[in-house]
Amino acid sequence: MRNQIEKSAVSSERQLAPFVAKLAEIPEAVVWLANFDSARTRQTYRNAVADCMAFMGATTPAELYALKQANFIAWRHDLQIRGVKP
Q1: In a structure prediction context, what are the per-residue pLDDT tens digits for the chain, which is 86 residues long?
Q2: How far apart are CA 32 and CA 47, in angstroms?
Q3: Minimal CA–CA distance to 55: which of 72, 30, 41, 69?
Q4: Are 56 and 64 in contact (CB under 8 A)?
Q5: For 45-55, what is each residue's pLDDT tens digit?
Q6: Is residue 56 classed exposed, middle or buried when 0-12, 13-18 and 19+ CB atoms within 10 A define those classes?
Q7: Could you give the CA distance from residue 86 to residue 79 in angstroms, rounded to a whole number?
Q8: What is the CA radius of gyration of the chain?
Q9: Distance CA 3, CA 60 (A)
């Protein structure tokens, strides 16, 4: 019985591998935004990320991902000064 389960798991992994590989090609931001049903919510998050990147001088996702928590705290403080909700 255990061998059948293991074989089934391996078979499932092989079937999923192409799908997972395709997902890996999709930018993380696109995958993240796809979790939201509302177009308005997606646009709000896109705007927030763009504002954050501009504030921090990040021009690529890699630069954004490399930032530290202190950078985001500074951005949040800037939003508060500007009267914008974080």
Answers
A1: 555 555 555 567 788 888 888 878 888 888 889 999 999 999 999 999 999 999 999 999 899 999 999 999 999 999 999 998 76
A2: 14
A3: 72
A4: yes
A5: 999 999 999 99
A6: middle
A7: 6
A8: 20
A9: 46
Query: Residue 23 has which token pair?
Result: 């997902």
- Which residue type is seen at 74? A
Counting every residue written for the chain, the total comes to: 86
**3-state SS, one letter per residue, for the chain:** CHHHHHHHHHHHHHHHHHHHHHHHHCCHHHHHHCCCCCHHHHHHHHHHHHHHHHHHCCCCHHHHHCCCHHHHHHHHHHHHHHCCCC
Residue among 33, 13, 29 at smallest CA distance from 21:
13
6-42 as b/e, with b when 16 or more CB fall inside 10 Å? eeeeeeeeeeeeeeeeeeeeeeeeeeeeeeeeeeeee
Q: In the numeric block, which tokens belong to residue 29?
A: 């931001």
